[in-house]
Fold:
Amino acid sequence: MTTNTGKPLSRRTALRNMGAAAVLPLVDRTDSSFRRAVEGKVALVTGSGRNLGRAAVLELARQGANVVVNARSNRAEADAVAREAEALGVRAIALLADVGDEQQVIQMVDQALERLGRIDILINNAGFRGSSSIAAMSTEEWRAATAVNYDGPFFCTRAVVPGMISNGYGRIITVSGLNSFHGRPNWSHVCSSKMGAVGMTRALAVELAPNNITVNHVVPGAYVAHPNLSQIPLGRVGLPQELANMYAFLSSEEASYITGQTFHVNGGEVRY
Structure:
């Protein structure tokens, strides 16, 4: 691993510099030989005002995509990420919407289409996390998780698919987490809703394939902290850039024969 100056970057330095929202380039993006893999495409990344969503936006922008930054309510964060993306030479807009609200999603996509003309890439990154035992869980808590984690990808995907079909191109990526695969106490609402999105991915991959639209699922591991690094074969938490690289690859033409798949980006913590 190296910095963008070509100097070796130690794991300790990388982790110290990372922070919860750092984007650390792993290759020199200014090199004239670097191919911008999504040049001219338009990408919508939900929940991208901070952290891993921000990293995805900035990597797609580095690789030439115009971007839509989405946050539920924090306008300042979304605008800040949009400005970072614009500094990379692309068009960027920030739109507020709760992805669990059907009408807000429709309005967001309509605004994006009006201002940027099309949506080629959708990354369903927004997520809800909460903790409650099944015995104590209220219906409202259950609905809050399913609204964002399950309804959100459905609302967003349904809104962008007509344009993708018309353009004959689309890349849809939905994001979940490791807890959905190995379970976690008091997270039945989160795990259930995120695993539902896996089934949606597989069904839509088959349905949309004739339209040159790929649909895949990405499962991040630990990117901020982990209670026991010995459980991760690579011995560290991930860098947001490493996850963003996967999103950029799946969004590109290089991934044109990959659909209906689940990709674990977790340093080997869980192996499928």
About this structure: The longest strand covers residues 213-220. The two ends are 25 Å apart (CA to CA). Strands lie at 42-45, 66-71, 92-96, 121-124, 170-175, 213-220, 262-265. The CA atoms of residues 131 and 186 lie 5 Å apart.
